[in-house]
Amino acid sequence: MDRSVFAIEVRGLKKSFGESPALRGIDFSVGSGECLALFGPNGAGKTTLIKVLATLSRPSNGEVYIAGLDIRKDAVKIRSRIGVISHQTFLYDNLTAYENLKFYGQMYGVAGLEERILAVTGQVGLAKRLHDRVGVFSRGMQQRLSIARAILHDPPIMLLDEPETGLDQQATAMLAALLKTLISGDRTVLMTTHNLALGLALSDRVAILHKGKIAHEGATQNTDLASFQYTYNRCTGAAS
Amino acid sequence: MNKALAILGKDVLSELRSKEIVVSILFFALLVIVVFNFAFDPGEDTVKLVAPGVLWVAFTFAGVLGLNRTFAVEKEKGCLEGLMLCPVDRAIIYWGKMAVSFIFMLAVEAVITPIFLLLFDLPLFVPELALIAVLATVGFVSVGTLFSALAASTRSRDILLPILFFPIVIPVIISAVEATQVAFDGKAFSDMVSWLGIMGAFDAVFLVVSTLVFEFVIEE
Amino acid sequence: MSKRLYNLLLAFSFVLMIAALYLIFIYAPAEKEMGDIQRIFYFHVPLAWIAFLAFAVVFVGSILYLWKRESKWDMLAQSSAEIGVVFTTLVLVTGPIWARPVWGTWWEWEPRLTSSLVLWFTYLAYLLVRSYASEESMGARFAAVLGIVGFVNVPIVYLSVNLWRTQHPPHLVNNLDGSMLLTLQVSLAAFTALYVLLMYHSVSIRKLAGRVRYLKRLMEEREG
């Protein structure tokens, strides 16, 4: 199998914390440029999966390849190819937006850092607040800066872990618009979310995670919200 | 590696803004010294006997406070994970953080020591203290940074860090106190060489060991 | 371990211990200066050495656990640490019992006792850190790190404490003649056998508990 076809490839992935299994054998792949939305109730293992893919957590068993690289051998290289957006912002409160981005830019070895900082802050609409301390930003603004941080090194693959958490309706709409621009193009995106509408709007394919296993997989095209809600409830055993 | 320096720069910048770490450990060290002053009868002979101990106990206690903050700040907003996502070996995070703690502690020691010598009416010019301080501080931060990362991942991190830290650094404390005693007594440098040697060995061993096991402490 | 081998070990340890007790209390001569109280020495010293052995096992178990992540290594390390702490506690108890009649003080800052005290704190922290972690596998990982750091520190602790004490010489001097040496060696062998026996039981119980938890979880999942 040609490794370079798939941006993310997961086979037989298992992850246990001591004796409790969080992921019980996951198989899926995300093609280059594709966007996969992963749904599932709390405790299904979505965050654990993202952590494993982001090299924050080691797999207990199974194989994971990102950008054709084996996660067990080339974790450092993989990290330079992925951008992660989470409900945690990874930002330092008493530094300014500029200083935060400068720091991460140095850590990622971003060339032409100054221009790049201006470019990404422009993209997320924070150009005017560049030299304000992050501590005074609203949650929505912090999330936007966090996105800027994630795309600073222009990663081909992005992992999003419930990015809509803590945002109100307006901010979520802004987030959706922003993500749409990010996702278009060659970027590969894996996104976990609670928000079915958001996930369906942005993705090419969907999957449902339940109790550490994939319960459903399919294309997004021609899937309307209502029928997908039904599928979701059926897979997770929730009341309709 | 210059990425470790980037971490150092970021922390120094943050500290210059908030001043929370250096100022608090400075005042705490001073307080400990003053309290000891009341605990002991400040007669000439007693002072000569207890002075090195007081100085190093103050630095140890204050040091633990500072070390605690090292990773406590990273735990807010998930910044530690942010660091772990960067394309660097885990050990770089360790070295960056350790260098920061080293600088902060050494800065505090440099300020506190002259004040201490004044308060206890000891000779002010003791250049060997610089060497002792460097060796001892490297010892403290080599182990302290590792344990700070460990404790930061638990609840009750303020209690756990001293429990882990104090037993391990006892050789450093013994050596620092004895070497300082030699310095205050004005004895020959050769008298303190074995103590410096022990600290040097401790530093070398634990810099290596901590670098090797650090990744196991911060992984998830 | 098969039943047969276990019984052999049990019988062997029993015989050794009886022999050791006989040697300690009857065979060995009373020491010239200290008298009969000196016989504590034959407990005190082997206990200290076996504690050191226990912590060496913790060291090896910790490395293997971090490397292979198999819970059996963690069980080995934890059991050995518990036994090591118990033995160290006994060292710290027999020390004062010996010291009081001989030197008139309950405690002496002499190298062996002082080092044992430091080890006691170190490995208590090893046992304690598990309860501070938010979940078990994290606790095991942290404990393993401590198991490595603590043991690497042992030679440095001994070095610094010994050097420290040569500045302030202790009272302790051990002169051993032939029969005393034999007694010490047999006592050491007896306590080593005791250690192995205790380890076997401790690890077995841990394994059983792990199996029970596993089966419980299987049951819960079937019902859920």
Helix and strand arrangement:
The complex is a heterotrimer of chains A (240), B (220) and C (224).
Chain A lengths: L5 E12 L2 E12 L3 E5 L6 H8 L7 E6 L2 E2 L4 H7 E4 L11 H12 L4 H11 L15 H13 L5 E5 L7 H15 L4 E5 L3 H7 L2 E6 L2 E7 L5 H12 L4
Helix pairs in contact in A: 4-5
Chain B lengths: L1 H17 L1 H20 L4 H32 L3 H6 L5 H30 L8 H25 L4 H12 L1 H15 L8 H26 L2
Helix pairs in contact in B: 1-5, 2-3, 2-5, 3-5, 3-6, 3-7, 3-8, 5-6, 5-9, 6-7, 6-8, 6-9, 8-9
Chain C lengths: L2 H25 L13 H28 L2 H33 L7 H22 L3 H32 L10 H46 L1
Q: Can you give keywords for this protein?
A:
heterotrimer; A: 240 residues; alpha/beta; Rossmann fold; six-stranded mixed beta sheet; four-stranded antiparallel beta sheet; 8 helices; 27% strand; globular; C: 224 residues; mainly alpha; 6 helices; 83% helix
Summary of the model, kept short:
The complex is a heterotrimer of chains A (240), B (220) and C (224). With 240 residues, chain A is an alpha/beta fold. Chain A has a single domain (3-236), classed as 3-Layer(aba) Sandwich (Rossmann fold).
Structure report:
The complex is a heterotrimer of chains A (240), B (220) and C (224). Chain A is of the alpha/beta class and 240 residues long. Chain A is built from 8 helices and 10 strands. In chain A, helix 6 links the parallel strand 7 and strand 8. The model of chain A has no long low-confidence stretch (mean pLDDT 86). Chain B has 220 residues and is mostly helical. Chain B has one domain. In chain B, 83% of the residues lie in helices and 0% in strands. Chain B has 9 helices and no strands. In chain B, helix 2 packs antiparallel against helix 3. Chain C is an all-alpha fold. Chain C has one domain. The longest helix of chain C has 46 residues. Chain C starts with a helix and ends with a helix. The mean pLDDT of chain C is 87.
